Amino acid sequence: MSTPRGSFGSKLGIILATAGSAVGLGNVWRFPFMTGQNGGAAFIVLYFGCILLLGIPGMVSEFIIGRHAQANAYRAYGKMGGRLWRGVGLLGILTSTIILGFYAVVAGWCLQYLFASVGGQLSGDTEYVSRYFQTFSSDPLKPCLWGVAFVLITHLIIVRGVQQGIERASKILMPLLLLLLVVIVVASCLLPGAIDGIRFLLLPDFSKVTHSTLLEALGQAFFSLSLGTACLCTYASYFSRGTNLLRSATQIALIDTVIAILAGLMIFPAAFSVGVNPDSGPSLIFITLPNVFQQAFAQMPTAGYVISILFYALLVFAAMTSTISMHEIGTAFFHEELKLKRSHAAWILTGACSVICVFCSLSVGAVKGISLFGLSLMDFCDLLTAQVMLPAGALLTSIMLGWAVSKRTVYDELTNQDTVSQSLFPLWHFSVRYVVPLCILLIFLHQLGVI
Known about the structure:
Blueprint: H1 11-22, H2 25-29, H3 31-37, H4 41-69, H5 73-81, H6 86-118, H7 126-137, H8 142-158, H9 162-189, H10 194-202, H11 213-224, H12 231-236, H13 245-273, H14 282-296, H15 301-337, H16 342-363, E1 371-372, E2 375-376, H17 377-404, H18 407-414, H19 425-447
Antiparallel strand pairs: 1-2
C-alpha cells in the first residue's frame, strides 16, 4: 500500500510556509539597498505595482500547476501541460538545488556570526570587524563546516514531512522572525538622528528614478517571490482543494513586502544615526552592520550586544525558511519519481547541496582558483541561476499556462471548480499571456545588459 501524500494541515501553515519560502536574506540586504538607491518611497510604489503586475500572477500560475497535479514539479508540469513541459519542472528542480548549494554558504556565515555574537567576538573597531570577516571567509575549513551544518539542519526538518517538518518549523520561525525584526526596528528608530534614515527610506525622491528603476523594481519583485524555482509549485501540491489561490498569493506577497520594508526600517535609521551609508551584499551584514550596531549603541554596550545577537538570529531564521523550501523541491522529486523513502530522497539533496556548498565556499575563500568563465564558482552559480535559469523557468511557466493549457482547465483550477468567485480571472489570464512574459523578457535583457 502506498503512503498517503503529505499536505499542509491549516490555512495558517500554508501562508507561513509559502511566505517563508519567499522571505530570505535578499529581503534584508537587497531590498533596502535597492529602495534607498532608487528614490526611497518612489521605488516602493513602483515595487508594489510590479508585485501586482508580475508577482501575484506569477505566483498564482505556479500554484495552479502544483495543486492541480498534487505532485512534485517534474510530474506536475507534465500533468498540466503534457510530457514536453516536464522539462520546465526539471529546470526548476535543478535551479533550486544549485541555489541551495551556494545560498548555504552565506547562511552558514550567518550561523557562525550568531555564535560569534553570543560570544562577544564582534566588538572592535572597523578594521577589526573587516579583518574578522576576511579571516573567517578565507579559512579552508570553517566556512565549509558551517555551510554544511546549515544544510544538515534543513535536512532534519525536511525528513519529518510536510506537517510535522515544514509546517511546524514555519509556524515557529516566521513569527520569531517577525518579532525579532520589530524589536530591532523599534530600537533602531529610537536612536538619535534615526529620522534621517526613515526619511531616506520612505520619502519619495523622484530625481533618483531613472529609466532602469522600473526594471530594478520588476527584478526585485521577481526574485523576492521565488518565481521560477518550482518552490511555489511544490508547496502548492500540498494545498487542499479548497485553498483560495489568488487570496493566498496576495497575502503571501503582502507579508513578503512588509518584511522587506521593515528590514529597511531596521537598517537605515541605525546607519544614518552613526553617519554610515549602507552598501549591499555580504559586506552589509558581515562588515557594515556590526560596526553600525556597535557605534549606534556605544553608550549602551549591553543593548548593542543583544541587538547584534537578535539580528543574526533573524538572519538565520530568514535563511532557514528559504532553505527548507528549496530542499523540499528536490526531495519531493526523488521521493516520488524514484519511489524512495522520504529520508533517503532527502539525503540525495543534502549530499548534492553539501558538495556544491563546499566548492562554492572554497571558491570565494581559500581556493580562488575554483572558477568558471572568469568568475568564482559561487558567483557563476549566482549568475547562472539569477540571470538565465530563473527567468527561463518563469517565462516558460507563463507561456504554458497562457497558451498551452486550455483556458477552461485553468479557470476551473483557479476557481476551485467554480466554487470560488474570481471576477479577476480575465485580467489575470491576460496578464499571464502577455504582461508577465513581457516583464520577464525585459528583466532578462536588463540583467544581460542589453537594455
